[in-house]
């Protein structure tokens, strides 16, 4: 009886976490759409909320069929969350780059004192209505500078991707050890992506919309790492026969290492390096931090290529030694 009650409580907790996580996804995406409609002053942008429908449909289907459990190799809610919020960030970034020269005076959030001034300057009297409170909150949010809004959305997006993956119920075949490793990878990946967007966007001079499009495209491409779990989650053999079969294939034996190399070369550090080289050569931007991060990306790419060579060289002797140690008939 106690075991059944404990299982029921655990199932309810997982069910609740699945709903809460997707609700947070929708709330942050809705905040992004609200900001777009406020900046563009066009209510037609509320149609961006239609992008939430796949996430809602996925939530209903997953809760009914899988009790909220995520999948092993791929996370549909995280992928659909990215689909729902990335268009809003694109619109805000492009609008800011277009109008940053003529941007009206706003209140920056670059210090604790500025945050306090922002809040205290918009305080109202005690005897006010609920509508007045809503107007006051709207005014406070509207006074924040556009670049601070965009940076906040980037930061909240990345933090929520990590926390959301932590809250989502584990998929079949995923252990808590693999989840902890995946979350640590997400933290490092999120820090690199945020550094790339913030540092590189600050290098945009004038109306260099080609560079803005390149940065946003590479940023969007790098975000696709979060729905995929191939960097840690791996299929383990259940018997010696399966182990022998796996040793024949390099991709099967070192699938996790191979995916980490692919991520570094083609999804994150490789594209980041290309963009930074374009910024230095084509757009004539040159400073210490840009050089440092370009060298960092270059070292990661070279080390991953070296890792690939080591894996291939170590695999050949192991496969040949197996053939040489087999007893002769």
TrEMBL record:
This is Transmembrane protein 26-like. It comes from the Eukaryota. Pfam families: Tmem26 (PF09772). The chain crosses the membrane at residues 45-61, 73-92, 211-232, 285-306. Keywords: Membrane, Transmembrane, Transmembrane helix. InterPro entries: Transmembrane_26.
């Amino acid at each position: 009886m106690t075991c059944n009650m404990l299982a029921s409580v655990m199932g309810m907790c997982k069910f609740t976490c699945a709903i809460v996580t997707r609700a947070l996804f929708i709330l942050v995406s809705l905040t992004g759409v609200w900001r777009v409609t406020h900046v563009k002053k066009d209510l037609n942008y509320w149609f961006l909320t239609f992008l939430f429908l796949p996430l809602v449909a996925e939530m209903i289907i997953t809760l009914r069929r899988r009790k909220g459990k995520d999948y092993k190799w791929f996370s549909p809610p995280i992928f659909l969350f990215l689909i729902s919020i990335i268009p809003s960030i694109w619109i805000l970034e492009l609008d800011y780059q277009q109008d940053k020269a003529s941007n009206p005076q706003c209140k920056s959030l670059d210090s604790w004192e500025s945050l306090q001034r922002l809040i205290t300057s918009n305080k109202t009297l005690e005897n006010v209505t609920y509508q007045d409170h809503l107007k006051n909150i709207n005014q406070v949010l509207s006074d924040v500078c556009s670049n601070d809004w965009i940076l906040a959305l980037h930061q909240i997006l990345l933090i929520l991707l990590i926390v959301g993956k932590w809250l989502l119920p584990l998929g079949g075949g995923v252990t808590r050890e693999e989840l902890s490793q995946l979350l640590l990878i997400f933290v490092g990946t999120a820090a690199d992506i945020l550094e790339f967007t913030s540092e590189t966007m600050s290098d945009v001079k004038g109306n260099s919309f080609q560079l803005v499009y390149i940065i946003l495209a590479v940023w969007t491409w790098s975000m696709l790492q979060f729905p995929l779990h191939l960097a840690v989650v791996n299929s383990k053999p259940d018997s010696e026969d399966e182990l022998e079969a796996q040793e024949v294939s390099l991709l099967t034996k070192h699938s996790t290492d191979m995916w980490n190399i692919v991520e570094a070369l083609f999804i994150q550090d490789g594209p980041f390096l290309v963009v930074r080289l374009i910024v230095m050569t084509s757009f004539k931007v040159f400073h210490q931090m840009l050089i440092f991060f370009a060298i960092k990306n270059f070292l990661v790419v070279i080390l991953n290529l070296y890792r690939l060579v080591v894996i291939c060289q170590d695999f050949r002797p192991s496969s040949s030694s197996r053939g040489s140690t087999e007893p002769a008939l």
